[in-house]
Amino acid sequence: MTRDRRRSTARLDNLSLRDQLRVDRLPLRVLQMMVGLTGFGFSLALLLESGLGGAPWDVLHAALAHRLGLTVGTLSISVSFVLLLVWFPLRERIGIGTIANSIWVGVSIDLGMLVLPEAQGIPAAVTMMLLGVVLNGISGGIYIGAQLGAGPRDGLMTGLGRVLDRPVGPVRIVLEVIVLVTGTVLGGPLGIGTVIYAIGLGPIIQLTLPYATIPVRTLNGRAVPAQAAQETVQGPTQSR
């Protein structure tokens, strides 16, 4: 099978934690996941430091961080674990990537904001904002492609969609709007960067996934048929 053909047929599998621990090329998957999560958190810091608005969830995180005297990364981690509590009644499955996402994205945000300067002038701000959006989408695709579990916000989306018997797209939009409005009311950094992020993230992840997905070939030493995959790469468009 040619590389182009393999990319076009790459699929994402909804693996349980037990299966994740038995999947082929686990060390490579963990490495790819951590690279993706690091870039993801760093890109969110780029958006915030640009001064042109944060990602929708970070509008809320930043607002709460300012009011509580904490860092944005600390609030990101705290909110992630609150959302994981909601997973239990929704019967969502926690994976390796779920826990790693909950912790490391917040750590990476704080590290990024520690080393990145605030944008000085409009050209620098626009450059940082655009780099943040592009890096976020690529990093999201890299993280998702490792196939080690959904982030806490994605799990909330899919869980509510299943319980409410509604498509995940509209559910995600409603969640993002609620979070964004709440964060804005609390004084979070809403801006043009927030809008561009919301519009551009999905397509960038979509373009990245076929190149970043590590296919599941074996579980516990046994070959997995291609048709066993439960979701094509055209499914998820978020990674948190």
From TrEMBL:
Keywords: Membrane, Transmembrane, Transmembrane helix
Transmembrane parts of this sequence: 26-48, 68-88, 95-116, 122-146
Domain of life of the source: Bacteria
Signal peptide boundaries: none
Name this protein carries in UniProt: Membrane protein YczE
Taxonomic path: Bacteria, Bacillati, Actinomycetota, Actinomycetes, Micrococcales
